[in-house]
TrEMBL record:
Entry protein name: L,D-transpeptidase
Species for this entry: Streptomyces harbinensis
Lineage: Bacteria, Bacillati, Actinomycetota, Actinomycetes, Kitasatosporales
Signal sequence coordinates: 1-21
GO molecular function terms noted in the UniProt entry: transferase activity
Superkingdom classification of source: Bacteria
Keywords tagged on the record: Signal
Chain segments carrying region Disordered: 22-63
Length: 187
């Protein structure tokens, strides 16, 4: 009788082992399961890529080829070049930019002047100045960084077209945008 009991216990233990190791059971892979969390992770719709807030997608209808894209609505710059494989293009860098009191009209321009360091139209010393347009009223539009890191005052009385970048980002544009580089301003 003891032998039958031992065999019965062995069979039950075997079936219990198999049931616990079944592929539809948590922990069946032998890997530890992640601990439950209260964090709510939104579902991503099938086929849709969620945009990275630090690197938003290049705006549609922003031109082709090597160019600087400036979005008035997003207040952001994209530095775009040809892809290394020669098929298409790639964004080298994107970062926020801060408008002044006057915005350039959407359109295609090109870099006309570069100055390493000058006084800004608001009197603040600026560096890495990349000018791309002067309107009929004489307002100069360009990208720059305040040496002290300050931003333009969009409520100021002076009409200026300086688009400020951070001192950390401005070297990227300075190295990228030579005189003649296309600048596309989008709404």
């Amino acid at each position: 009788m003891a032998v039958l009991t031992a065999v019965a216990l062995a069979v039950v233990a075997f079936f219990a082992y198999q049931a616990n190791a079944a592929p539809d059971r948590p922990g069946a892979s032998g890997k530890p399961e992640p601990a439950p969390t209260d964090e709510i992770v939104p579902d991503k719709p099938d086929g849709d890529e969620q945009e990275d807030p630090e690197n938003p997608a290049l705006p549609a209808d922003s031109g082709e080829g090597v160019r600087v894209v400036y979005s008035l609505g997003e207040q952001r710059l994209w530095l775009v070049t040809e892809a290394l494989d020669g098929l298409g293009e790639e964004v080298l860098h994107t970062y926020p930019a801060h408008r002044s009191t006057v915005d350039p009209q959407p359109g295609t321009y090109e870099v006309t002047r570069r100055d390493e360091a000058i006084p800004g139209s608001d009197g603040v010393p600026i560096q890495h100045v990349v000018v791309f347009h002067t309107d009929p009223e004489g307002i100069v539009f360009g990208f720059s960084a305040a040496v002290d890191g300050s931003l333009p005052d969009p409520s100021a009385q002076a009409r200026t077209g300086g688009i400020r970048q951070s001192p950390e980002d401005s070297p990227q544009l300075w190295d990228f945008a030579e005189v003649g580089t296309k600048v596309v301003v989008v709404p």
